[in-house]
Amino acid sequence: MPAFSLEPEQSAWCAELRTLAADRLRPLAEKGEPGRINRPLLAELGRLGLLPRLFASGALDLCLMRESLAHACTEAETALALQGLGAHPVHAHGTREQRERWLPRVTDGSAVAAFALSEPGAGSDAAALSLAAEPDGPGGWRLTGEKCWISNAPEADFATVFARTTPGAGARGVTAFLVPADRPGLTGTALDMLSPHPIGTLAFDAVPVTTADVLGEPDRGFRVAMATLNLFRPSVGAFAVGMAQAALDATLTHTARRDAFGGKLRDLQTVAHQVAEMSLRTEAARLMVYAAATAYDTGAPDVPRRAAMAKLLATETAQYVVDAAVQLHGARALCRGHLLEHLYREVRAPRIYEGASEVQRGIIARELYAAEDRTGPEGVR
């Protein structure tokens, strides 16, 4: 698979996705209630075959879906992404019984998944999580504590929950559990966020789980979390690239038509150079996202570094491009309901979730120095 260009059929598929997002998904998104799961939108994603594709293809396909949907309908992109994030651990690490029970419903949109890793005191430092899984008889635990900033909470039908089964063991004492929403003692509250996606808290009051609910192996849940994030971090970058491209396209149209100082805005060199810079950065971020996704799909050894780089560059780039687009549009871009007002609110969060930009820089540096330690001071390979 080429790392830096798409095959003609892939480009055609992306164009088809942008059309579907505009014609079939955006109308459903506009009927949704802010901050609530949009189940009709999820069902349509299932009917279009996009939810099944989350688990039937690789990282590059995931990135192409997220970028294409984000360009025309960020709500559809986010619904797809949150479903994949919450259910991927079941697909990759679940038992046959777990997969057979939940994945068909996930892929047709009738069951909604959540990914419950972050806590009030453990966001970027995921290894410091404190949700306690206390032993409860042979092969059982009781979960007690709180999760915060959780995708699709509190309305999700099940959650991939990461809890501490061995106190004091850091990342090595965490277990991943599949927890259905109807378990006794599990409650939640919606959060009112800057961009109104379904995000909330989950409270665990001695919620019962057993070995049948474990995803992967006990005390190895941190690996489940990191493997999931290594897949989804480049696709967060793809989401950002889709938003950056939408902002760039809007800016090209606006500056070509807007009268200013006896000509068009685009005739001003400062404006033309700004648009060129926006395009340059967007394309560079896109190529890095595609390269990271291809590295994941081909089993390259440096996936964590590439994934971190892709997320970091693309999300920071999208923030820059959207902000520049707002500036070039002027006050109209700040009006509620304008595309850029929408993107301005949407673009901020990806620099934080699934590892803030500062965390990505730490991962990149750690991987670089680990490679240096393996090769020696002379850098001989």
TrEMBL record:
**Cited SUPFAM superfamilies:** Acyl-CoA dehydrogenase C-terminal domain-like, Acyl-CoA dehydrogenase NM domain-like
- Domain Acyl-CoA dehydrogenase/oxidase C-terminal: start-end pairs: 219-368
EC number(s)?
1.-.-.-
InterPro entries, per database record: Acyl-CoA_DH_CS (IPR006089), Acyl-CoA_Oxase/DH_mid-dom (IPR006091), Acyl-CoA_Oxase/DH_mid-dom_sf (IPR046373), AcylCo_DH-like_C (IPR036250), AcylCo_DH/oxidase_C (IPR009075), AcylCoA_DH/ox_N (IPR013786), AcylCoA_DH/ox_N_sf (IPR037069), AcylCoA_DH/oxidase_NM_dom_sf (IPR009100)
Domain Acyl-CoA oxidase/dehydrogenase middle, first and last residues per copy: 114-205
Domain of life of the source? Bacteria
Q: Say which enzyme class the record assigns.
A: oxidoreductase
The alphabetical list of record keywords is:
FAD, Flavoprotein, Oxidoreductase
The cofactors it requires, by name, are: FAD
**GO terms assigned for molecular function:** oxidoreductase activity
| UniProt keyword Oxidoreductase, yes or no | yes
Q: Which CDD domains match?
A: ACAD (cd00567)
Q: Gene3D superfamilies given for it?
A: Acyl-CoA dehydrogenase/oxidase, N-terminal domain, Butyryl-CoA Dehydrogenase, subunit A, domain 2, Butyryl-CoA Dehydrogenase, subunit A, domain 3
Q: Where is the Acyl-CoA dehydrogenase/oxidase N-terminal domain?
A: 8-109
Family, similarity comment: Belongs to the acyl-CoA dehydrogenase family.
The entry's protein name is Acyl-CoA dehydrogenase family protein
Q: Give the species.
A: Streptomyces galilaeus
